[in-house]
Amino acid sequence: MTVRERKQSVFVRLIKYRWLYLLGFPGMAIIFLFNYLPMGSLIMAFEEYDPWVGLINSPFVGLKHFAKLFNDPKFFLMLRNTLTISALSLLTFPAPIILALLLNEVRSAAFKKTIQTTIYLPHFLSWTIVVSLTFFLLSSEQGLINKIIISGGGTAHSFLFDKSIIYYILVIQSVWKGVGWGSIVYLAAIAGIDQGLYEAAKIDGANKFQSIIHITLPCILPTVAVMLILKMGSIISVDFEQVLLMTNALVKDKLEVFEVYIYNNGVKSGSTQFSYTTAIGMFKSVVSTILVISTNRIVSSNGMKGII
Amino acid sequence: MTQDIARSTSKGKQFRRLGMKASENIYQLIIGFLLALLAATMVLPFLYIIVISFTDSTAYTSGMFYLWPKKWSLEAYVLILSGKGFINALKASLFITFVGTPINVCANAGLAYMLSKDELVGRKLINRLVMFTMLFGAGMIPNFINIKNLGLINSWFANILPSACGAWTVMVMKSFFQELPRDLEEAAEIDGCGTIRMFFRIVLPLSLAMLATFTLFAFVSYWNCYFSAILYLTSSSKQPLQVYLQKLVLSTDISEVVDVADDLAKKVPQEVMRMASLVVVVFPILCIYPFMQKYFAKGVMVGAVKG
C-alpha cells in the first residue's frame, strides 16, 4: 500500500475494489446467512420459546434451562457417553502413526501406492455406507460373521444389540474409516526428515528398528504433539452421524450423546423442547469452543505453529 | 596366513551381506503382509457384497456365504433401478451433488481470492469473521429454525447452501492464491484486465489442480449428505440416496422403500436387494476415486494440512 493509497478515503477504496467484493459476495452471504444468522436464535436458550409469539416476545427465563440441564441425570449420562467414546478413540491415536511408519519402510513404490490407494478410500465413504457394511458383517441373520459361526456349529450372536461391545464397534469403525487418511500427515512429516541422519546412523551401526526409535520418532514428535493436542480439543464432540446410525432400542442408553438427544427431543418432537435443547446445544458449543481455543493456544505457545 | 585372514574376512563380509539381504527381504515381507492385511479389510467386505448382490435368487440360500456366485443374475439391480423409491432418491442425490458442487467451489474460490488481496478494506475483519465459524456454531436447533425462516425446509438447497462455503476450504484456497506468482496479475492489470476477468482467465486456470481437489471434495460431501437430509427434507420422496440406503438396510419391510409391487419384491431375497443397493450408492464414489488419487501426491492435501 503506497502513501497515496493510504490517504484515499475508505469510500474511494471500497469503490476501487468493488469487483473483488463482488467475487467474495456469494461466499460472504452464505457464511452470514447460515453461520451468523442462526446465532440470533440462541436467545431461545434463555427464554420459554413459543413459535406462535416469536423469538422477541417469548417470555425471558434467564438461566433456567441451564440450571435444569445441570440437574438432569440425562445430562451426566450424555457427558459420560461422550467422554467414554472420546477416550476410547484417543486410545487409537497411535494407529495412523504406526501405519505411516510401516508405509515408510516399504521399498517397492508400486506396492506402497497400491496400499495407499486402498486405505485412503474409506475416508470418502459416508457413515451410511460404513454402518451398512457393519450390518452386513455383524447382523444376527444376515451378518457374515454369524453365518460363519453357524456353519461352524455355533450359535448366532447379535453383536449390534450388545451393550457391552457397542463402543468397540464404534471405535473399530472409526479406525477403519480414518486410519489411512490420518497417516498422510505423518507420512508428510517423515518425508521431511533429513536423509543424512539415517546415513549417519547406518555408519554408526544402527539397525532399522534403532533408526526408527532414535531418528524417525523424535523427528515427527512435534507433529504428533500437535495432532494429539488438536484431538484433545474435540474431546466433547463425537461423530454423531455414526452414533445416530448405530443407535437401536437395546443400546440406546450407551449411545445417547448431546446431538442425538437434541435431534430426538428438539427436532422430532416439535417446538415444545426448542428452548431446552438449544440450551444443551449451546452448552456443548461453548465448551468445545473453549477447548479448541485453549488447545490452539498450547500449540502455538510451544512454537509449533509452523507444523499445522 | 595374512592372505587367509583377508580372504576369510572378505568371505565373512559377503556372508554378512547375504544375511543382511535375506533379513531385509524378510523384513519387507512382514511389513508387506501387515499392510496387505489392513488393505484386505477394506477390499474384502466390498467383494463379498458385490458377489452376493449378483447372485441369482434361485441359487441363493439364506444363511450361506459365497466367495463366488453359483449363478450370476442382475435381477436385484433391475428391481432396484425400476423402483420409484430409487428413482426419486437418485434425482435428489444428483440435484444436490451437481447443483451443489459448482456453487460450493465458486463461493469458496471467490471469497478466498478476495481475502488473498492484502490491500482490501476490511479484509482483516472479514477474515476473522470467517475463521470464527470454525470455532463456534449455533447448533442444531438454531440452524433448523433458521432454515425454516428462510423457507428452505423441504428444499434441496437446504442441503446445498449451509455447507457451500466453509472456513477451512477458504483458508486453504486463500493461501494457495497468495502463493501464485504476482507478475502475471500485474502484467494483466497493466494491459487493462479487470478483476473479474483476471480471476476467471488468469487466476483460476493457474489453480486447476487445487480446484479439482476441492471439486472432488465437494462432490463427495454432497453425495454423502445424510443428516442434513433427514433434518431438513420432510417429504420422503425428496430424500437422497444415503437416506434410501439407510432405510433399505435397516427397515424390515423393504418393498415399501424400494416402491415396487409386492410380488415383484418377493422374488429377490431381501439380503441380495440390500447389498445391491449399497453397491449402487457407493458406485459413483468408486468411479471418481481414481481421479482424486491423482491429486493426493501433488501435495495439495499436505499443503492443506500445513495451511
Name the descriptors:
heterodimer; A: 308 residues; mainly alpha; MetI-like fold; 70% helix; 0% strand; B: 307 residues; flat
Report on the structure:
The complex is a heterodimer of chains A (308) and B (307). Chain A has 308 residues and is an all-alpha fold. Chain A has 2 domains: 1-36, no CATH class; 72-301, Orthogonal Bundle (MetI-like fold), CATH 1.10.3720.10. Helices cover 70% and strands 0% of the residues of chain A. Chain A has helices at 3-7, 10-16, 18-36, 54-57, 64-71, 73-91, 94-105, 109-120, 127-138, 144-151, 166-191, 195-203, 208-233, 240-246, 252-255, 258-267, 274-301. Chain A is globular. The model of chain A has no long low-confidence stretch (mean pLDDT 88). Chain B is mainly α and 307 residues long. Chain B folds into 2 domains: 1-53; 76-306, MetI-like (MetI-like fold). In chain B, 75% of the residues lie in helices and 0% in strands. Chain B contains 16 helices and no strands. Chain B has helices at residues 2-53, 75-82, 84-115, 123-135, 140-149, 157-160, 167-179, 182-190, 195-206, 208-223, 227-232, 241-250, 254-258, 262-267, 270-296, 300-306. In chain B, α8 (182-190) runs antiparallel to α9 (195-206). The radius of gyration of chain B is 28 Å and the shape is flat. Mean pLDDT of chain B is 84; it is low at 299-307. Classes of the chains: A mainly alpha (308), B mainly alpha (307). At the A-B interface, α2, α3, α7, α8 and α9 of A face α1, α3, α4, α5 and α9 of B.
